[in-house]
Specification:
- There is one protein chain.
- Strands 1, 2, 3, 4, 5 and 6 form a six-stranded antiparallel β-sheet that branches. Strands 8, 9, 10, 11, 14 and 15 form a six-stranded antiparallel β-sheet that branches. A three-stranded antiparallel β-sheet has the order 7-16-17.
- The protein is about 20% helix and about 40% strand.
- The N and C termini lie far apart (about 65 Å).
- It folds into two domains: about 140 residues, TATA-Binding Protein (2-Layer Sandwich), CATH 3.30.310; about 100 residues, Pdz3 Domain, CATH 2.30.42.
- Strand 14 and strand 15 form a beta hairpin.
- It is of the alpha+beta class.
């Protein structure tokens, strides 16, 4: 039994490599709690086929994501895991909606039926999710480029450049490799599904990007984020 318990703990270290507790929130100006909730639900079918709604009311939405993992030293254990994501929607006196996000993962021991639950995520990754929701209603500042998650030539490839964006203006191209942001080497965390750099949709931000192209020549590009209107999706000045 002790060996099984040790294997279960080791497996959990693989499934949940970091145990982190965080709960983040944003305030959304141009949406009611119901509108925010319905927007989240509308995106489920296209993003997470394994998601179910566990609980829902005017001020709360609990989503359950289930999947199977191969774990253990040699991948010899099939383990069931659940990620329970809780959103709350709180109307504020000034007409805004405060939205909070919290995620807890649970792993089930295939030998004993026991389980272990831990909060996961960081304030940074949670805010990234919440800001994507806020962006849909309020707009926000964006650079207008996207970066892939597969490392190439010492960095990560630029996979999209929005038309009319600051990225297009400064000459970023799809296929260039992003090596550094503000002098820090770009990294990607598979467990958090996130790179180690982020923008702030609430304020303009200036970054220095170190990129290289097919010729292998490195260059630094200075870029400042610009406001995107949530209705037209065009880069403009905030109203």
């Amino acid at each position: 039994m002790k060996c099984i318990a040790k294997l279960f703990v080791l497996t959990l270290m693989v499934v949940f490599p970091g145990f982190v507790s965080a709960m983040s929130s944003v305030s959304i100006k141009n949406a009611t709690p119901t509108q925010v909730r319905d927007y989240i639900i509308s995106g489920l079918s296209s993003t997470h086929a394994n998601a179910t709604i566990e609980n829902m009311n005017d001020n709360n939405l609990t989503l359950l994501f289930t999947q199977m993992h191969r774990a253990g030293l040699f991948g010899q254990v099939m383990m069931s895991t659940e990620n329970r994501v809780v959103f709350t929607f709180i109307p504020q006196d000034d007409g805004q909606t405060q939205v909070t996000y919290n995620e807890v993962a649970t792993a089930y021991d295939p030998f004993t039926g026991g389980k272990l639950s831990r909060p996961i995520g960081t304030a940074q990754t949670e805010l990234s999710i919440l800001n994507d929701i806020k962006f849909n209603f309020d707009g926000g500042y964006r650079f207008g480029y996207g970066v892939g998650n597969k490392k190439q030539k010492g960095g990560y490839p630029i996979v999209v450049v929005d038309q009319g964006s600051p990225a297009e203006t400064v000459g970023l191209k799809v296929g260039q490799i992003l090596l550094k942001v503000n002098g820090e080497k770009v990294k990607y965390d598979k467990t958090l599904n996130s790179h180690n750099f982020h923008s702030d949709i609430n304020f303009p931000k200036t970054d220095i990007l170190t990129v290289t192209d097919a010729s292998g020549i490195q260059k630094d590009i200075t870029i400042t984020s610009q406001f995107v209107d949530p209705k037209t999706h065009k880069y403009t000045e905030p109203k």
